[in-house]
């Protein structure tokens, strides 16, 4: 039997949605914290195939999710293009900054990224051997705009101000940066697919700060370009796009980019998305990750509400964004149980 996630991505409406979670391998799990301590730091864990495969498998063992997502980070691409990348504990990522055309020119060519990223492909090869038969293996990368916001600012920013400033000052150089990241992303995701990824997801976490033509040019167009190239090289490979906080721009995003599924953040009303986004194909989402901290009847009610809203079409259950380190694993188990108990064929 074909895996549930692949059936949903192909447009099938299932009795209950398959489920996985963004950031499902992470600090809310004690076994993750133990493996990370063994690796030393976060980036070392990303480049240690045996350990990265181990943390990818941990949430599958605990919760029986329908998909495993490769353990890595969107900031490996900047590193592979020649930026310095490091993580400051308790604060987040830091990178060398790119603020003008000369910084863009100094980046390595896209074809060179494999030199840095080959351990990631090894992680995927290990996972293809170790995953349960009905679990789908998802690869991923950051979308060019989101990756660029970190490369320009050298860190996470609340409003992506430095990237917007670069774009305003030298649009041609900024476009060259977006193009270089897009080319590198095609190389990277293509190699992930060759190593065993059955689906790939593009994380455009900061898409919501692009408006009007900027959204078309720097979120939508690069996604379309990457998806077209991947589908040309790997016919039939399903792609999930996540233009987070795109609001009304979620409508039509799948059609415009060729994505098989659009992932929705928790700001989107499921009833609206069922009418305006799901009519184009599969949607993924969108329970508020806060429920993984607070639990209780509200978690059960909201989980059911999301499932009910999307019941008329193809749907993959997920959170609207990553699970946070303060989440309680018992709440994750309760969410999965609640979804699966909604199967009309399930006597429970
Ligand atoms: O979803 C998964 O479980 C797969 C692995 C994954 C990670 N990061 C692991 C990670 C994925 C898909 C990502 C994507 C990612 N990384 C995004 C896009 C999705 C999103 O959340 O919006 C972004 C913006 C990043 C960049 C990044 N990585 C930041 C800003 C941080 C620091 C914030 C934090 O949570 O600590 C990271 C670190 C990171 N990436 C961790 C994990 C498990 C925590 C690292 C640790 O162990 O301390």
TrEMBL record:
Q: Where does substrate bind?
A: 23-27, 73, 150, 205, 321
Q: Which domain of life is it from?
A: Bacteria
Q: Show where the Uroporphyrinogen decarboxylase (URO-D) domain sits.
A: 18-27, 138-154
Marked site positions, Transition state stabilizer: 73
Keyword flag Lyase: yes
Q: Which Pfam families match?
A: URO-D
A molecular function (GO) term: uroporphyrinogen decarboxylase activity
The entry's keywords: Cytoplasm, Decarboxylase, Lyase, Porphyrin biosynthesis
Q: Where in the cell is it found?
A: Cytoplasm
Q: List its EC numbers.
A: 4.1.1.37
| Coiled coil stretches, renumbered | none
Any one Gene Ontology cellular component term annotated for this protein: cytosol
Keyword Transmembrane helix among UniProt keywords: no
Q: In which pathway does it act?
A: Porphyrin-containing compound metabolism; protoporphyrin-IX biosynthesis; coproporphyrinogen-III from 5-aminolevulinate: step 4/4
Listed GO biological process terms: protoporphyrinogen IX biosynthetic process from glutamate
Report which reactions are catalysed by this protein: uroporphyrinogen III + 4 H(+) = coproporphyrinogen III + 4 CO2
The record's family statement is:
Belongs to the uroporphyrinogen decarboxylase family.
State what this protein does.
Answer: Catalyzes the decarboxylation of four acetate groups of uroporphyrinogen-III to yield coproporphyrinogen-III.
* NCBIfam families, A to Z: hemE (TIGR01464)
Q: How does it assemble?
A: Homodimer.
Q: What is this protein called?
A: Uroporphyrinogen decarboxylase
Organism the protein comes from: Paracoccus jeotgali
